[in-house]
Amino acid sequence: MSEVLVVVDHVDGAVKKPTYELLTLAKRLGEPSAVYIGPADKAAEVAEKVKAYGAEKVYTIDDAPLKGYLVAPKAEALQQLAEKASPAAILIPSSAEGKEIAGRLAIKLESGLITDAVDVQEGPVTTQSVFAGNFTVQAKVTKGTPIITVKPNSAAPEESAGAGAVEEFTPTISDGAKTAQIVASQPRQATGRPELTEAAIVVSGGRGTGGNFEPIEALADALGAAVGASRAAVDSGWMPHTFQVGQTGKTVSPQLYVANGISGAIQHRAGMQTSKTIVAVNKDEEAPMFELVDFGVVGDLHTVLPAATEQINARKG
Amino acid sequence: MNIVVCVKYVPDATADRQFESDNTVDRVGVDGLLSELDEYGVEQSLQIKEKAGDDTTVTALCVGPEKAVDAVRKALQMGADQGVHVLDDAIAGSDAIATSLVLAKAIEKLGAEKKVDLVVGGLASTDAGMSVVPAMLAERLGLPQVTLASVVEFQGDQVRIKRDGDTATEVIGGTMPLVLSVTDQSGEARYPSFKGIMAAKKKQLDVWSLSDIGVDASEVGAGAAWTEVEETTARPPRTAGEIVKDEDGSGATALTDFLASKKFI
After folding, report:
1. Where is each Electron transfer flavoprotein alpha/beta-subunit N-terminal domain found (chain B) (predicted)?
2. Is the ipTM of this complex over 0.85?
């Protein structure tokens, strides 16, 4: 069986959940080989983690010579690794950076690219959700090495022990790849809540909050959820843009999405329509969001949410 | 300064978007317009021109079917100086890889007349939405990629942007010529003024074919795509769920019961 390269999603060596999802999908296509581009001193730790989810090989690439620059050096490193390993496919997390790396890699390898897959089956045949979630598309790559970026929550991670053979790989980075420099970097402040795109439950608020996100945050914490916001709430300055769910923000596909005081414009629906279960609370019974819901409450979120939060906390004991 | 801003003509996201029988996006039966997210690229290009001075030219570049000229016109109405529409039947069905090839060749042709300093794009298209074309252009043109800017600043040939990345907010710097892409956070796009609409009618709008830019028809179109759509399926409409009215706190209890029944608590 051929190798399938899986680019490890991590922050400074802390492996993120989508990595395990990608490894699980990779097993359907061949032998998963994790590719870790990051601090060398964390490589052993990362290798242990990915091994538990089926990585037969772990390529480690020290990012010291790469990290001061935007995506181009990573694309070069992956190109060189792909030329050496001749993988059956390359799976990359569907983040903004992941997609840019994938785009450059596709040109370098003269290979077809599929972005934002929500499922990958043998073939590989991918499933994507398009047009604000109104259509699903099945596609495959017909030239070169299939390069597929995969969205978070696309598979349930399955533990399975792999050989986890570590192999250091040292790419040659051209000067041309070092032309866009990262001058400064400020890590996102930790909220203590799950990451929006990876969370199993998302509780979000819109115009109807009137700028008061306390009931949203309290319910989110009771459910162990991430907090999201509509564009209206972000444009009003109530929440930072990093919380925005929708076409120009994050696309989420959690098990449960709770929309509070969000009317449900197409741009917002584009970011959450594929959620498994959708719940809405809104004063306006005509809100288009109610067309999508599995359960809806016509009422004031400022009274409904605190009362529900209290009951949820009580039931949890 | 010479700025080329890439604009895409897309089916209106608020209309009923469909696929053709060959699984390509229906770009004829649905009203189209300049992709909303590309308006931000036009806006930033115009702001750069306003700061850099009058010898700056902003060229709106579009690849698409006949009706796509509307996207170029909108950019001209907003204030772009001239437009180029690459129009060729062979282009229909092109994927992002072929589209980036056509754009790159058109930019090279523009650059042959006067060196291009900035290639500007948006965050994503509102139809396919891959967000990869600016990175592909940088790769093809061998230019620095300074992308997904929420704030753009420049001084001379130095460009600095703020990029709200997935895990960090970064400041990215590069030297022109480069490829820049901007997000919807970069600043509200202007509406065309009446004067702008009138002036746009007199602006130069060139239509180029593939042979004008030196691209062979076999390199583009559905036949040359490196990916293939096997099937498109309309998502079944969500069946209407249960909706209750909150009366004296009944809403909170009903909500809690629902969440418990689905094992979310």
Report:
1. 22-217
2. yes
